[in-house]
């Protein structure tokens, strides 16, 4: 079966995120002063062949641990869908 | 003669400067390519600065998995000296040969200028030629130089004296060039517990010749040249 994997990699909470801060300042300057807590991360999509959704998720998790995210500074979220 | 392998990745751009600095101190320097599987019997490995693999994903993240890095991992595990400069430091962190990570500079801009650093640890293969506490002016050129690690790791690095270089602190009216990137504890370079693997953000190879206006960085290479060549015969093909 084919699965589409959506990976969201975010800087770990508590770490300084200067990109998020810069975007927040820019939003404020554009009149969106209500925006706060901006953080900038990275989205990665990939297709994967696996026997089951669980297998696909296990493999995707290994990819994140090994390459897609840096376990020292980043957290990731996985979503797996058929197709 | 001491054999020093300078690793070339696609995107390395301080490889030739590093090789020249190595040759200047009388060592036998040579390039190895990222696809090579062997270090050709190197006593010392230098991972030079640059933008390996375009810094895609994260600086150093993809270089870490290149064939030559498997050989560098074995070399380091056997106690072999490794110096990572700038992108080389980022690669060493991604490869978990050094703790922590190097993130986007706090000011978000690429910083290219001389900074002032203190040599805190001289008990390494690359800083033995300096006096402890020596102040050097070394160039930095990086976008991702902000050293980050967990509080436990930072505590351990300090307790074990593993901060090799530290940026001077910013003080009002001082002519000194302080921490340029927001690094934790003003850390500019660290080493492994044994002092054999060293990673630094500044570029000593750019100030290792009087023609370049300063020799503040030459000590990294004279230190390296004082290391003893391997006496055991390696199973890897020699040069």
Explain how this protein is built.
- The complex is a heterodimer of chains A (83) and B (239).
- Chain A has a single domain (2-82), classed as Phosphoribosylformylglycinamidine synthase subunit PurS (Mth169, Chain: A, 2-Layer Sandwich).
- Chain A contains 2 helices and 3 strands; from the N terminus they run βαβαβ.
- Chain A has helices at residues 18-29, 53-68; strands spanning 2-11, 42-49, 74-82.
- The N and C termini of chain A lie close together (8 Å).
- Chain B has a single domain, classed as Class I glutamine amidotransferase (GATase) domain (Rossmann fold, 3-Layer(aba) Sandwich).
- A 9-stranded mixed β-sheet of chain B has the order 2-1-3-4-11-10-9-6-7, sandwiched between helices.
- At the A-B interface, helix 1 of A face loops of B.
Largest sheet of chain A: 3 strands, antiparallel
Alpha-carbon distance between the two ends of chain B: 12 Å
Number of strands of chain A: 3
Q: Quick one: which chains have the greatest interface? A: A-B, 11 and 21 residues
Tally the helices of chain A.
2
Query: Helix/strand-derived class of chain B?
Result: alpha/beta
Percent of residues in helices of chain B: 10-25%
Helix-strand string of chain A: EHEHE
Tally the structural domains of chain B.
1
Our Rg estimate of chain B from Cα atoms comes to 16 Å
Tell me the strand percentage band of chain A. Answer: 25-35%
What order do the helices and strands come in, and which of them pair?
The complex is a heterodimer of chains A (83) and B (239).
Chain A: E1 2-11, H1 18-29, E2 42-49, H2 53-68, E3 74-82
Antiparallel strand pairs in A: 1-2, 1-3
Chain B: E1 3-8, H1 15-24, E2 28-33, E3 44-47, H2 67-77, E4 82-85, H3 87-94, E5 101-103, E6 111-119, E7 135-142, E8 146-148, H4 151-159, E9 163-167, E10 187-191, E11 197-200, H5 218-225
Parallel strand pairs in B: 1-2, 1-3, 3-4, 4-11
Antiparallel strand pairs in B: 5-8, 6-7, 6-9, 9-10, 10-11
């Amino acid at each position: 079966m084919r699965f589409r994997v959506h990976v969201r990699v975010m800087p770990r909470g508590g770490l300084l995120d200067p990109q998020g801060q810069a975007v927040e300042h820019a939003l404020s300057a554009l009149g969106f002063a209500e925006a706060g807590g901006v953080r900038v991360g990275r989205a990665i999509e990939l297709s994967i062949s696996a026997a089951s959704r669980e297998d696909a998720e296990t493999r995707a998790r290994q990819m994140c641990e090994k390459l897609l995210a840096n376990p020292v500074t980043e957290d990731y979220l996985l979503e797996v869908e058929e197709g | 003669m001491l054999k020093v392998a300078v690793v070339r990745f696609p995107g390395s751009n301080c490889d030739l400067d590093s090789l020249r600095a190595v040759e200047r101190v009388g060592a036998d320097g040579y390039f190895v390519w990222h696809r090579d599987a062997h270090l050709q019997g190197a006593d010392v490995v230098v991972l030079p600065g640059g933008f390996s693999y375009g810094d895609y994903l994260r600086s150093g993240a993809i270089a870490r998995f290149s064939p030559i890095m498997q050989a560098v991992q074995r070399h380091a595990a056997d106690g072999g000296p490794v110096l990572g400069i700038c992108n080389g430091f980022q690669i060493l962190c991604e490869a978990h040969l050094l703790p922590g990570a190097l993130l986007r500079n706090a000011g978000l801009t690429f910083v290219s200028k001389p900074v002032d650093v203190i040599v805190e640890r001289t008990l390494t293969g690359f800083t033995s030629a300096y006096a402890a506490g020596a102040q050097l002016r070394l160039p930095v050129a990086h976008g991702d130089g902000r050293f980050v690690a967990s509080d436990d790791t930072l505590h351990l690095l300090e307790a074990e004296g593993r901060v090799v270089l530290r940026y001077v602190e910013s003080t009002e009216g001082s002519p000194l060039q302080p921490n340029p990137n927001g690094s934790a504890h003003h850390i500019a370079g660290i080493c492994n517990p044994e002092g054999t693997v060293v990673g630094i953000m500044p570029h000593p190879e750019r100030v290792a010749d009087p023609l370049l206006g300063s020799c503040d960085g030459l000590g990294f290479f004279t230190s390296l040249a004082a290391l003893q060549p391997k006496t055991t015969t390696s199973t890897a093909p020699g040069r």
